[in-house]
Structure formats: C-alpha cells, structure tokens
Amino acid sequence: MIEPISKEEGIQVIRAGFAQVLLDVAFDCSAPVYWYSIADYQRGPVLNNGTIFFVDAGVGPFAVTARHVLQGYREAVRAEPRTLCEIGGVDFDLLGNLIAEDRKTDIVTLRMDDDTLTKIGRIPHVNPRAWPPKPPEIGKGVFFGGYPGRHRIEGPGIIRWGFAGGLDVAAAIHEDHISVQFRREDWVHTARHAPPAVGEPWGGVSGSPLFAVVQNGVVSWRLAGVVTEFGSTFEILYASSFSEVGRDGSISC
Prior knowledge:
The chain has 253 residues and is α+β, with helices and mostly antiparallel strands. Helix content is 17%, strand content 39%. It has a single domain, classed as Thrombin, subunit H (Beta Barrel). It is built from three helices and 18 strands. The strands form three sheets. Strands 1, 2, 3, 4, 5, 6, 7, 8 and 9 form a nine-stranded mixed sheet that branches. Strands 13-10-16-17-18-15-14 form a seven-stranded antiparallel sheet, covered by helices on one side. A hairpin with a 4-residue loop joins strand 3 (48-56) and strand 4 (61-66). The chain is globular and about 60 Å long. The model is unreliable at 1-7 (pLDDT under 50).
C-alpha cells in the first residue's frame, strides 16, 4: 500500500525543488502566442496574448490553445487586416493552420511541424498513457504554467515573456471541465516564485496545459486539460478536458 505524504512533507518537497521540476514540464512544451499590427512599416506593440502548447499523441505533433484566444486574434484581424501573429518569436499563421475548434469546451487545435517547433525552442509533450488523457482526480495534485500578459516587457525590437504557474489540487471534476481553487492559506512559495498580489490579473494563461500528478510508488504526471480561464477575484482556475480530442488533433463535437 502506498502511503500519501503529509502536508508538511509535501511542503518540504516543494521547497526542495520539486515544484520547479513540475513547472519546467509545462514550460518545455508551451510558448506565448500573441499578435500585433503593422503601421507605416513599423511593428506596433503586442495587442493581446495567450498561451499555446504542443502535444504528440502518437501520430505527430499538434498545437493546442483556448478557442477564445484564437477568436481574439480573428477579431483583431477583422479590425486591422495588417495584424500578424507570432509564437515565441516565430511568425505563425493561426487561421491557416487550424485543425479543429470547439466553442463548448473552448479548445482549438492547430497543425504544427518539427521545423517550427525547433525555431520556437520547445518540445511537444508525449503523454505516457492512453489517449485521450483522463481528467485529474478530485483532491489530487495538478499543476499548470503559462505566460501572463502582466509579465510581458516590450522595448524597441524586444519582447520578453515571464512564465508563471502553480500547483494545487483539483477541486471539482465534471464531464467536460475541471476547476482548481487556489487557497492562499495553503500556498507555499519560494524566493524564486513569490506569490502574486491579491486579485492580480492572470490574463494570458488561457491555453496553458494542465497536468495531473500521479503517485504510484513513484511520482509522475500526465496531461489532464487545457486552461480556459483564471478568475482572479476568487482565484479559481478552469480547464477543459481532452475527452473529445483525437490523437491527430481532431475534435469530436
């Protein structure tokens, strides 16, 4: 029988560096997706951003983000046709690479090739278990990471992105979505990862990967969902499951 670790033991493990190991899992397969307009042959400031991540379910890589991120780009292009998109500093045609989108779950999938991934400097996550991945279990550990717009620093010809994330437990599991309640009284932070201010906006993390922590003798993790919203007022994260997403990025609507 595997004995669960105590809260105190968990805090020790997190402060010893395990939290960074998990956040690196999310970082390695994700990147900021953002858009800007061109005026007088000059690049304008970033108009908005989200997070996108990369998955290989056995038949080649594809990209995943929240559908409302793609919709924000669509609306920006309608307002100003000279709006361009980048992923991690690399030009990318979001609309031209669309595989599927689902309004209900707020998920969109896009074609992604190895050459573009190399330019972005990211590696697709290969899920170690059956596809589609199951949602996490209530009360079990989850973690995520993405690119909040508040961490973005822009200068002439330069954009720097800050990566942020968190670990907690799944508070509620439904057929098509997951919620995680972040309670400040349970937060554990380190000198490298200070806690955000109360009510601080997390816009930009939509589209981030959500992973479930699995403890079966050894601790491992698996993909569990796509972050679709982070409510700053009550600090609740919402995500959609992969239940309708196929190995090739198709979505059964």
